[in-house]
Design a protein that fits this description.
Layout lengths: L2 E11 L2 E11 L2 E2 L2 E2 L2 E9 L2 E11 L2 E10 L4 E11 L5 E14 L5 E12 L3 H4 L6 E14 L2 E15 L2 E2 L2 E9 L2 E9 L1
Antiparallel strand pairs: 1-2, 2-5, 3-4, 5-6, 6-7, 7-8, 8-9, 9-10, 10-11, 11-12, 12-13, 12-14, 14-15
């Protein structure tokens, strides 16, 4: 059975709220997707929201998330690190990669969004998506979105090392692509 509890305190005005909340969940889920446990701590200080810690455990996998959202300046970051655990809730030394998203969305309409992927283990898909293709390998890279929101430009670089699915494997896959002026350009695709 699922359990859910929270504690915390908020004060101030709706325009300037302040406080911290801790949330715990055991065996929570929706539909066919369940997590073993989750813990979340959020602090709000006016328009600045800090996600101090969010630890999510599922099937011997820990996802650790932290971030900051500044609503007044419309900028912030979100960082997720993935770890294999030994099944008792403590993370092992074996990391399964990291993703970091930084964003800046000023009122001028210009955007700057960057996503960095650092050695993300493709086997993670098995923990989050049932009946996957048996992916293997790791992926690193960077994706950016810049320019004006009405006509953004995108750039992508990915390196997949030891890539494979079921019976197919590759040493390395390199992808470099860009989207500018309503045109997608594949600049590099190397598979070896």
């Amino acid at each position: 059975y699922a359990s859910f509890d929270y504690s915390g305190r908020f004060f101030g005005t709706p325009e300037n709220p302040r406080g911290t909340v801790d949330i715990n969940c055991q065996k929570c889920g929706y539909g066919d997707y369940f997590i073993d446990s989750a813990y979340l701590r959020v602090t709000v200080d006016g328009l600045d929201t800090v996600l101090h810690q969010a630890d999510i455990f599922r099937s011997k996998m820990k996802t650790a998330i932290n971030g900051r959202l500044d609503l007044s300046r419309k900028q912030g970051f979100l960082e997720s690190a993935f770890y294999y655990t030994n099944g008792n809730g403590s993370a092992s030394d074996l990391t399964a990669g990291m993703i970091r998203l930084d964003y800046d969305l000023p009122d001028t309409g210009e955007i700057e969004i960057t996503a960095d992927i650092n050695e993300l283990d493709l086997r993670l898909a098995d923990h989050f998506i049932p009946d996957t293709l048996g992916l293997k390998g790791s992926i690193s890279g960077k994706a950016t979105a810049t320019g004006y929101i009405e006509d953004p430009e995108f750039a992508l670089f990915l390196r997949v090392t030891g890539a494979g699915a079921k019976q197919i494997t590759f040493d390395t896959i390199l992808v470099r692509a860009a989207y500018e002026e309503e045109m997608l350009r594949m600049e590099q695709l190397d598979i070896y």
